[in-house]
Amino acid sequence: MKKKHHFLILFLLCFVAYSAHSQQATETRLGTLPELSLHRGHTVHILSPEPIQYVDIASHHVSGDLPLENVLRIKLHEDTTQTEHLDFELGTITIVGDNFVAQYRLTAPLWMNDTGIPAMLEIKPEHTRPLEISEIGLSRSQMKNLALGLLTKNAHRPVRSTRDYGVGIALNSISTLGDYIFLDVSFTNTSNLSYNVDELRFFH
């Protein structure tokens, strides 16, 4: 039985450049941030368009974790003794993705109708600022979209191919974007033995 495996391999050539001129910092004030209200007994899930790399929560009244790489779960601590006063203002929460940073103003209203309590927040583009770290490159979601787009293109003739003992490999196309190199590689197997690709090595 003929088996064919199709791979798109992404190589990132790391050329890290440090700028000698720092950018002028801009100030963000708490009152200008979008508000996110928290209530005891309720959890809020924050959905990020990119994998979350870093989270900072200003208040010790709030805890959070990452059940998924792009989902942040936060909630107010349960105060069973009710002896600690909870301020309305809980400070900021900062969320950093591959290519953006987002901040929200956390509050704890004394009362809110249950139907108005937030359950999920999706980070919107207007709530983010781009991270201009030197040559941070593409995010994983951007690389995935580019890779899938390249896979949909049909190569008329492979750039290079070889075949031996019923196993073949073909380099269908090479694409570049900045410091990235995309290789479209196909594997075929007409032998009676199954195999899995363990690793690929490139020599120059």
TrEMBL record:
The keyword Signal applies. Keywords: Signal. It comes from the Bacteria. InterPro entries: Conjug_transposon_TraN. Residues 1-22 form the signal peptide. It holds the Pfam family DUF4138. This is Bacteroides conjugative transposon TraN protein. It comes from Sphingobacterium spiritivorum.
